[in-house]
From TrEMBL:
Its main location: membrane. Residues 74-270 form the ABC transmembrane type-1 domain. The chain crosses the membrane at residues 12-35, 78-97, 109-128, 140-161, 182-204, 259-278. PROSITE patterns: ABC_TM1. Belongs to the binding-protein-dependent transport system permease family. It is a multi-pass membrane protein. This is Aldouronate transport system permease protein. It is found in: Cell membrane. It comes from the Bacteria.
Length: 292
């Protein structure tokens, strides 16, 4: 076992303290929101967090799933996020792989044009006019297509492809394999780490996005969950289906607080469920795609 000097021990100890502190900064608010979403509003306002099962309540979750806009928003967010992820992966992979080949003429010029778009763009109003002229306003395509291409993702995937063993490609060409067959049979099976990384980036980004929907979608039936949640958290509004008209204003305010916490938990569930399955690919994909 390797022995550490006193300075190394103090450094390791300091690192552990800092890491524990950072974990607590992230973990404590999450635990508070989770517990608050299950607490009776009266108990939460009077006593704070309570671990007594008699003080727990699922009223906030009940109200959420009784509200049509919230349920439709959840379904819409899944559709938008999955669709956006698929389009992003397909476009990124098919753009990055040719740019990683040494024999592809003009690849440097194309990369220069790609890089320019990272620093300069038309802005919000021209983008809106383009989406409008293409007839995509108030449709699912206005959410999926405009942001599907990310130059950063293309650079990440391109770097990953350039790091693949060239001997495999040379052996496949000697055996008479075409470029398409090499891509499908060799490149894609070896690209699982970067594909999962791109999928995680795209899904999380789209799931948390509400600005594009706020601009392009007028029909409330098409609003994603984050836009519905925004109206609850920022504008302090609760949908009519969640609250009965017979409740007094004080009671309405109390249950609104519980609904806010429950909404945050519900909106975070897909990401929390998805991340453990992507974790084993995430670190490898990021590290390999960022080297060379």
């Amino acid at each position: 076992m390797k022995k550490h000097s006193n300075s190394d021990k103090w450094l390791l100890f300091t690192n552990k303290i800092v890491l524990i502190f950072l974990v607590l900064i992230v973990l404590v608010p999450l635990l508070y929101i989770l517990l608050a979403s299950f607490l009776d509003p009266n108990v939460l306002l009077s006593k704070g967090i309570s671990f007594n099962p008699k003080d727990w309540s699922i009223e906030g979750y009940t109200r959420i799933f009784q509200d049509d806009l919230m349920v439709k928003g959840f379904i819409n967010s899944i559709i938008y996020s999955v669709g956006f992820t698929l389009v992003t992966i397909i476009v990124t992979i098919f753009a990055a792989y040719p740019l990683s080949l040494n024999g592809f003429k003009g690849r440097n010029v194309i990369m220069v044009f790609f890089l320019i778009t990272m620093f300069f763009n038309g802005g919000l109003i021209p983008t809106y006019l383009v989406v409008k002229d293409l007839g995509m306003l108030n449709t699912i395509w206005s959410i999926i297509l405009p942001g599907a291409i990310s130059v950063w993702n293309i650079i990440l995937a391109r770097t990953f492809f350039k790091g693949l063993p060239k001997e495999l490609f040379e052996a496949a060409k000697i055996d008479g394999a075409s470029e398409l067959k090499i891509f499908l049979k060799i490149v894609l099976p070896l690209s699982k780490p970067i594909i999962f990384v791109l999928a995680l980036y795209a899904f999380v980004g789209q799931w948390n996005s509400y600005f594009d929907a706020m601009i392009y979608l007028e029909d409330q039936e098409l609003h994603p969950l984050q836009l519905v949640l925004r109206s609850i958290l920022i504008q302090n509004e609760v949908q009519p289906g969640m609250i009965s008209d017979q409740l007094a204003m004080a009671e309405l305010s109390k249950i609104a607080e519980q609904i806010k916490f429950a909404s945050i938990v519900v909106s975070s569930l897909p990401l929390l469920i998805m991340y453990p399955f992507f974790q084993k690919y995430f670190e490898k994909g990021v590290m390999v795609g960022s080297l060379k």
